[in-house]
Each structure stands twice: as structure tokens, then as C-alpha cells.
Amino acid sequence: xxxxxxxxxxxxxxxxxxxxxxxxxxxxxxxxxxxxxxxxxxxxxxxxxxxxxxxxxxxxxxxxxxxxxxxxxxxxxxxxxxxxxxxxxxxxxxxxxxxxxxxxxxxxxxxxxxxxxxxxxxxxxxxxxxxxxxxxxxxxxxxxxxxxxxxxxxxxxxxxxxxxxxxxxxxxxxxxxxxxxxxxxxxxxxxxxxxxxxxxxxxxxxxxxxxxxxxxxxxxxxxxxxxxxxxxxxxxxxxxxxxxxxxxxxxxxxxxxxxxxxxxxxxxxxxxxxxxxxxxxxxxxxxxxxxxxxxxxxxxxxxxxxxxxxxxx
Length: 313
Known about the structure:
This protein has 313 residues and is an alpha/beta fold. Helices cover 35% and strands 17% of the residues. A 7-stranded mixed beta sheet has the order 5-4-3-6-7-9-8, sandwiched between helices. Strands 1-2 form a two-stranded antiparallel ribbon.
């Protein structure tokens, strides 16, 4: 899936090209030539880019992204052509997208993609939307693998596959395995891997179940860690609840992963876990309770504890 921003910009057709029936991205996007839905009707112009954005009822930057998506054009083209005509089909689609955005649906789901670690990943309501905080998890994992040749990596709860895929792309010598209990999430992760030409093995099952008996140099996970009573959970109602919370105190999935790490890590293998900003002390304690050593925490750019790291053996 190519993002609207990445599409090649189409220059304005010259007068000669217009005479030959050349089209702009706007008219082409609605499936007609320049004389189709974008014509004037009874002397009155149809929908124009600037008018639609101004009357969208949402933030202009978001409206511009949604209109570009509806038109299959680029945002840059829209900025350069504020008076460009918009066909009725695309205008209706844009209106529907704006309505869904006003109702609280995330932009990532509306556009069907989200950028993560400089790459575009397809997303849908079956998976958690990748977040900047999780890039810190990837950075920590990459740091732990420095100096290690042909590392074996396991990601637990892969969702869209963004973490496993980035690790596979950043370390093409690695053997990457990713598991998830959701078949729909795994299907999307496999699509993303194909689109980004990443080599990874995706297995269906709960946490370690699909890799019983196998060991890895590194285990990485961003599991559900929001407590069921956390008021912020209500703000994330469009995302899959099972990927956000354990319906308890937010620590049960983290504890399951930590408890099973020793049986699935090679000697001096590393466990890297993302957690809530206020869970660092609890996660460190769990790691030590289960015999892991060299326990430490990595803070994000805001200084909040986000990632705990521990070593086996």
C-alpha cells in the first residue's frame, strides 16, 4: 500500500495536453476525465478542494490527508491546487471519512496505514496502531543485538508485525519468528512482511505455545499492559481491547512472558519488554523473581520508563 504522501506528483497539464484530453489527479481519481464530475453545472462550480477542507469539521491537516486518500492524490497536490474540482463520488467518500473521524475513529484506521520506524504499515481494527513509544522497544532490541551474528529473535504478540518486520529489515542476518493469538492480526502482519520484503516466520498461538522447545537469542514484546481500571482505556475504544488490557492490573501478560523467558532464551539471551510508564519497578521485580539478571530500564524521550531489559544466565 503506497501512502498518499509518497505518490509521484503529477504536474499541471500544459495547454496542449489539455487540448489532447490530459487529466489532473483530481479528475482522474474520480474515474473520469477532466470534463467529468469536475465540470461546472448550470454555471456553478462543483466541490472545490479548499471548500471541502474548510467545511470538514475536523483539523485541516487531517482533512487534507483524508481528501488526498479519497481522491487517490497527494497532499502536496491539494496544497498546490486549492481550487481544484472534486467529483461527487470522491466528495461523498470524503464526507463519510470525516464523519467517522468526528466520531473518534483513528486516522490510521481511516487511511489504512501508519508509519513506524520510517516505514508504512497497513493497519486495521484487528491490530493495535503502532506508536512512537514502541520505536524505543525496537531501538533497545537492536542495541542488545550489536556484535551478535545471525541472531535468533522471537516477538510475542506481533499484531501488525511492525516490530518483527523492522527487526528483520534492520538485521537481515537475523532469524525472526513472531507469534500472535489472533489469526486476523497474523494475516495482516504477513501482508506487511510481503509489502516490505521482510523475511519472518509468523505462527498462530498464545505467547510461547507455537515455539515450545525452541530457544532464541532475543525475545521482545509489547504485550497488553493497561490496567482495566485505567481511565485512559476508554479513549482507545476503537482499538482491539485484548491488545490493550489483560482485564486486570495490567501485569499478568508481562508476568507470563517473564516467567516463560528462561525456557526459551539461549544462554545469555536477552528479554526486552515494553510496559506502562508507571510499571518499571514492578517489571524489574518480576524479572528478578524469575531468575533473570542484568535487569535495567530504558526511558523514552520524555524521561518515562518504557522498556525493561534482562539477561538469562
